[in-house]
Amino acid sequence: MNLMRAVATIGGWTMISRILGFTRDMLIANVVGAGMVADAFFIAFKFPNLFRRLFGEGAMNAAFVPLYARKLEEDGQDAARKFGSEVAAVLLTAMLFLTILAFIFMPYVMSVVAPGFKDDPAKFLLTISLAQITIPYLLFMTLCAQFSGMLNSVGRFAAAAAAPVLLNVVMIIVLVLVNNHILDAPGHAMAWGVAIAGLIQFLFLGIACHKAGILPSFTMPRLTPDVKRLLILMAPGVLGAGVVQINVMVGDILASFLPEGAVSLLYYADRINQLPLGVIGVAVGVALLPLMTRQLRAGEEDAAMHSMNRALEISLLLTVPAAVALAMIPWPIIAVLFERGAFSTEISYATSRALQAFAIGLPAFVLIKALSPGFFAREDTKTPVKIAIFNVTLNIILAYILMQYMSYVGIALATSITSWINVFALAIILYRRGHLKLDRRLLQAGWKIVLSATLMGTALIFTFHQFSFTFLTSGFLTRFGILVGLITLGLASYGLMIHFTGAAKISDVKAMLRRRKT
Question: Quick one: three-class SS letters along 235-259?
Fold first, then answer.
């Protein structure tokens, strides 16, 4: 399996999903803006969506994939299918029980997830109602996480990466119907869209597993030794691999105490930040783990080290310029994407401040995804969780302090700062254990990437300054043209700089994309 090719496959489908996700969010911004309904829906959606990210991009990828891959390598496909069936039975039973409990006790759950909403009874009751509708998404996403892990383990990355596209398609259809007054109650309509999309994704991935010959059969749940081993690894993996998402949820909890709209502002800013994080970070993490697992199983330590260095290089090459661009020109990006209908210019300015704070941590968010497989491929989920516990605790303290002075922006900034601390902790421990040694190619590319991105950022901010008044006073088409021009300038200037400095060359990219066996 070629790492760059796998990253490109996953990243390509994720890019499509993110583009459709932006279309979805543009429609949400137009329909509900950043008021009570938006705050309530975002909390109701984020609660089950958090579990999707923890299980799908976190624990399931961290714990299940290495065990399933080992079954395939050592015992064959029949043994792996049996293991998958045992896991599916336990997950289905456990998550069905948890979903029912969450539905019944949702008022108490929301008292923890959005405690600040209790001061506004109407808002709190609306949040509870929407969360009860979206909670089945949790059940479907947990099973989808297993299906995705199985597909990734056999090198079928496309279906798992394409599944989130279905959520955005369903939500876009629902929002178009709401916008045309065919459906009433936008909050409830969107919540039902989430639940229905979860079912569709589950069926889609089930069909993909069936075609690959790996669809598990649902049997009576039994805690076999293999399942117990998985659960032991998953428990710390939930926190260790999903610390960024947990920190974002912590931010939402604290934001619920701030004035109305704070939750929505953080959501819209995070959605912009999630584009490079989702396309690059998730792709790198998902592709790297099974590759490193196989290399380590074969005793190829040097190959595993090389794979991690290339993952770090790819992460820096793509995220550093994205972070600089988001920090330099956040307002035109948000204005073009969201500023219409209920989403005013004032909301755009407010959201851009949060986006700048999130952008500071963007490379760190992705580097965590690249470093974590260094532990998970060795079936070590305890070390990342120890780091994560410290990180989440620090984030709570820092966010609480900064929000006193910077409101919702302080919450976003705290998430970025603690993410960088997480990166350094992971890297230092891997280095001390002899599992990470930065090669010469990565070290030389690193400073060249930073220099190239800095020069690109300078060009962007200088150019936008020349057109800022025109942008402020113009309509959508002119604004869109200016943003396209800025993006083109950014891509061109960064591309030229990395080629000129030698940080990356077109020939190198073509070589990495060329299919070859590892």
Answer: HHHHHHHCHHHHHHHHHHHHHCCCC
